[in-house]
Specification:
single chain, 595 residues, Glutamine Phosphoribosylpyrophosphate, subunit 1, domain 1, Rossmann fold, eight-stranded antiparallel beta sheet, five-stranded antiparallel beta sheet, 25 strands, globular, binds fructose -6-phosphate, aminotransferase, transferase, repeat
Length: 595
């Protein structure tokens, strides 16, 4: 996800901005840029790729004396990772950097174009700086123009804006994306995390959603809630969490909103990156992926078939490659990949293309090999995932598949206005359901102590909850090194139940809204054979040895997302209790670029 830095003061601005951006590299990015305004001159530098490319571009630039500056690392969401799309985004005499997504940028852009603005980039961000200059036509008050600009925007943002007309001020706004302001002996600093100001500043303010302001070198002390700044960088990169995996579990509700933003509302789903007519004449989907992405595909199959009534076949990329599968031109080949570089998935994609199939990638990394190879792309917008065990990428893949289901169903005229509204409110509730409640986390911390031994785990569920059970088992295996299997609960008595005894731990996913009673019967069968049973549900199940309660939900998708969080936390806490390196589990790599 993008990173923001800013500085007001007399030290070497370029150096401070670039050092700050380097501290934010861990968030992931595909281009970077800075703008420095000093002695009446505004200089902007941008480069695609690593920060060293940006450093090369501005190697000869120095700015002496007082000035202001902003910087940015961009993770492409609207428009390719090119220099013109990199931030700062430029208008006539102002520059802006922005994290997040402006949902109504197309309306604003159209309006500004009618007023004579000529847009240079494909970004949503450019509307901010052009809108600001438009409002300045009617007022000399820079802050008033900025306030009006922010009031026009819909979406999530952290914004820093500078203008030649106001050479000592940085305008800032926060809504949904993180932004801090900090102060040290040599000036005032901005950042999207405190990691980039540690070493420079000793006081900090964590801005709240809705904060809009105008900062100069003197106004920091007038802010509310000034706190001392934590000085441990590694801790700061993890936003205070013990592991990146934990941080990524906690940020799922935020990234899911980004996944949805600008694409879905009560009227339906708009996927601007999918060409019109892409699904015309298509009678079947093939979803192909590996590992966690494969599990998202498997859950997606149930959702796609249920909502869009389209036959969906899910294949494991490593198997598909050599299976000589029969492919038909009326099928669309969908690959799912967090990294976009998984060798098996990439080769399967090439194979499908060679057979003349249309291809669609659901991917987290723009410009990755899989994205470049596919005919159409839906980015998951999870931001960089650092924990080797995938969490937030899975959540966003699932959301994209759900949106795709609604999208295809709409094209087939399967949903009326009321259905569309229901889908949307269910999505919004599902996102909310991924917000980690302290009570749930505490419960799993305590419970994990009881699940450190035994001869294995069965994770069981039905329908969408079956692949979720597979994913819960995979998470536990990866980080705890304990043996765990996922099973459809109805299949237990066809063999696996032979393993049941008190040292077999069963984690049962018991929803209220989809086949709950059926799973309860399967739980009883296991309980009768003495398996130790932990049920994840919003309702008590009498035969359970342990209960993990999720909040009552209004539908099964909301339950799906709640249970997903509980399973991720369970794996995390068991692994921590066992003393494992949660973020870098043994034998695993984040991106599997070999067969
Ligand atoms: C599990 C995990 C792996 C990946 C798999 C595919 O936590 O991360 O199973 O899901 O290697 O990777 P991507 O999605 O990058 O293609």
């Amino acid at each position: 996800m993008c990173g923001i830095v800013g500085y007001i003061g007399s030290n070497e601005k370029k150096e401070i901005l670039i050092n700050g951006l380097k501290e934010l590299e861990y968030r992931g990015y595909d281009s970077a840029g800075i703008a420095v305004l000093s002695a009446g001159e505004l200089k902007t530098f941008r480069a695609v790729g690593k920060i060293c490319n940006l450093e090369n571009k501005c190697a000869d630039f120095i700015s002496k004396g007082f000035g202001i500056g902003i910087g940015h690392t961009r993770w492409a969401t609207h428009g390719k990772p090119t220099e013109i799309n990199a931030h700062p985004q430029i208008a006539h005499f102002s520059n802006v950097v922005h994290n997040g997504i402006i949902e109504n940028y197309q309306e604003i852009k159209k309006d500004l174009e009618q007023k004579g603005h000529c847009f240079l980039s494909q970004t949503d961000t450019e509307v901010i700086v052009r809108l600001f200059e438009e409002f300045l036509k009617d007022t000399e008050d820079g802050f008033e123009a900025f306030r009006q600009t922010i009031a026009t925007l819909r979406g999530a943002y952290a914004i820093l804006l500078i203008s030649v007309k106001y050479p000592d001020k940085i305008f800032y706004a926060k809504n949904g994306s993180p932004l801090i302001i900090a102060k040290g002996n040599d000036g005032v600093y901005f950042g999207s995390s405190d990691a980039c100001v540690i070493g420079y500043a000793d006081k900090v303010v964590y801005l709240k959603d809705g904060d809009v302001g105008c900062m100069d070198i003197h106004s920091f002390e007038s802010l509310e809630n000034i706190r001392p700044l934590e000085q441990n960088k590694a801790f700061a990169q993890k936003d205070g969490f013990r592991y990146f995996m934990e941080k990524e579990i906690y940020e799922q509700h935020k990234v899911l909103l980004e996944t949805m933003m600008g694409r879905v509302n009560e009227d339906g789903v708009a996927l601007e990156s999918v060409p019109d007519g892409f699904f015309e004449g298509v009678d079947e989907l093939i979803i192909c992926a590996c590992g966690t992405s494969y599990h998202a595909g498997m859950s997606g199959k149930y959702v796609l078939e249920r909502i869009a009534k389209i036959r969906t076949n899910v294949v494991m990329a490593s198997e598909f490659r050599y299976a000589n599968s029969v492919m038909r031109k009326s099928e669309i080949f969908i690959v799912i990949s967090q990294s976009g570089e998984t060798a098996d998935t990439l080769e399967a994609l090439k194979l499908a293309k060679a057979n003349g199939l249309k291809t669609l990638a659901i991917c987290n990394v723009d410009n990755s090999s899989i994205v470049r190879e596919s005919d159409a792309v839906i980015l998951t917008r999870a931001g960089i995932e650092k924990g080797v065990a995938s969490t937030k990428a899975f959540a966003t893949q699932m959301m994209v598949l759900w949106m795709l289901g609604v999208y295809i169903a709409t094209q087939k005229n399967l949903l009326n206005k009321n259905d569309l509204e229901n889908q949307f409110t269910s999505m919004v509730r599902s996102v909310k359901a991924t917000e980690v409640s302290p009570k749930l986390h505490e419960r799993l911390k305590r419970l994990s102590k009881r699940y450190l031994h035994g001869h294995g785990f069965f994770f069981i569920g039905r329908d969408v909850f079956y692949p979720l059970a597979l994913e819960g088992a995979l998470k536990l295996k990866e980080v705890s090194y304990l043996h765990a299997e996922g099973y459809p609960s109805g299949e237990m008595k066809h063999g696996p139940i032979a393993l049941a005894d008190s040292l077999l731990f069963t984690i049962a996913l018991v929803p209220r809204h989809l086949l709950g009673d059926k799973i309860k019967s399967n739980v009883e069968e296991l309980s009768a054979r003495d398996s130790t049973i932990c049920v994840i549900s919003s309702e008590e199940v009498e035969t359970a040895d342990d209960m993990v309660y999720i909040d009552p939900a209004q539908d099964y998708m909301e339950e799906f997302f709640s249970m997903m969080v509980a399973l991720q936390l369970l794996a995390l806490e068991v692994a921590i209790k066992l003393g494992n390196d949660v973020d870098m589990p043994r034998n695993l790599a984040k991106s599997v670029t070999v067969e």
